[in-house]
Each structure stands twice: as C-alpha cells, then as structure tokens.
C-alpha cells in the first residue's frame, strides 16, 4: 500500500456484479481518501471498471459514472440492447465517458497499470485470462470492455483479435489467482453479504447460443455452481485468516441492472463506510 502502513503487502481483489459495483466504488473512494493503494490489484467486470479509476487515482470518478451519468444519459436500457447489441451503451461507456465527458487520466493509470490485472473469459478456450496494459489507450479500454461484457446482453468483445466476454463467467472472485502470485494475504471486496449463495439453476446451453464457441457454452452451463463454490472458498479463506473481506453487511437491495439512483447512492455510501471501517481497523494494528 502507498500509505504509512508500509508493512502491509496484501493483494486487492475486486468482485464484479453489475450495478452492485457501486459498493466497490465507495470502498475504493475511501481508500483513495486515505491514500491507501495496494501492490497488486486484480478485478472483474464492474470491479474492473471501478478499479481503473482507482488505479488512475481519480476519487469519485467511478461514482459519477455509476450514478450521476446513469441518471443523465440512461446508458442502461433494453433500447441499447435492441439498437446496439448491448444493454449498456458501449459508445458512451468506452469512448465518450473516458475521452470526453468524464476524462480518464491515462498518464497516471499507465504509471501504475503494471500492477493491475483485469479478468476476461476467452470465448475460444472457455477459460479466464488476466490481462493488463501499460501503454496503449485503446487496448486498455478493450480489456475493460471485454471484462464487463455480460453474456447474452452484450456483443462479444475483441482483445488482440481474440473474442472475450465477462471474466465473471469463469472467475468471479479471483482470490486464488492473487494468492498464486505470491501474496500471503489478500483483501477481497465482495458485492454480496456473507452467507449469500446464488439460487439460480445451471442448465446446458442450447447449441444456437454461442454456437461457434462450444467451450464457452460449457463454462456458461455451470457458472452458478462455480460462483457458489467461490463464495464458499472466500468464506473459508476468511475464517482461516488468509484473506480479509469488505462486503455489504445486509442482503443486497440493488440488482445487477439497477437504475434507482437512491438505492445506488445508499449502496455507495455503505461501501465508503465499510472502506473507512477497514482502514480504521488496519491503522490500529
């Protein structure tokens, strides 16, 4: 961390979750308020979007994107899905926001991007990939777009001419990847309360769904089981003291496609509060 707590060498792991990611943006704003940065961060989907503004050291930028500009531009809609092939307006999110309406600090980002990885799902292999970019603006945007491209409601994204989708299909909470990089401890920002398990049922994907990507169909066929296994792993590692978790303290009222600004603001404030609580605990050690 870039803080007085120089002895802390944890990795940071950011879960996705669509609009539930406003919780994560609150946590990260609390970290930036106290100048708390980690030596390595790995993020998925909405966590990758929020993580980019954290790595670029731009407080409240992710909050503005997730709440203020959602209200102003309504970039989450079925109209976008019909007209552009994605429920999230890709032109606004990955072009006009970073390059015009909510300028992204590419220079600062690239100074720190070597320690930041975003998770995508390779449609050809059905496996997770952990990607970073330290120089090329467009490739950085391509990666975060791919990491956030939800199956069924987004176009397949291309990174280095390879078809990619949301990293959460395969690795929603990449804590094992973080620990596998040599870190003895990780801080995991979750977007569900402890004890949550998905009640959605897995089913074999019909052949007309992603017919050109059979291994992706296999991954999609057991994504809920894999996610629940990851939730169990996170709780076990937390109980063993190998990771610390920052998470909502009550069941989530915000859905993946939530558009209610009042609900989103409450969740952001909860994330900010939980981030401050974590910092206070760490500073007492």
How would you spell out the order of helices and strands? EHEHHHHHEEHEEHEHHEH
Estimated helix fraction: 40-55%
Put simply, the count of helices is 11
Query: In percent terms, what proportion of residues is strand?
Result: 5-15%
- Profile the largest sheet: 8 strands, mixed
Quote the average pLDDT. 94
Structural category? alpha/beta
- Span between termini: 15 Å
Counting copies of identical and different chains, the oligomeric state is: single chain
Task: Give a verbal description of the structure.
The protein is of the alpha/beta class. It is built from eleven helices and eight strands. It has helices spanning 22-33, 46-55, 61-73, 78-84, 90-101, 106-112, 137-147, 175-180, 214-221, 223-239, 261-283; strands at 11-14, 41-44, 116-122, 127-131, 157-159, 162-166, 186-189, 243-246. Strands 1, 2, 3, 4, 5, 6, 7 and 8 form an eight-stranded mixed beta sheet that branches. Strand 5 and strand 6 form a beta hairpin. Helix 1 (22-33) packs across helix 11. It is globular. The two termini are 15 Å apart.
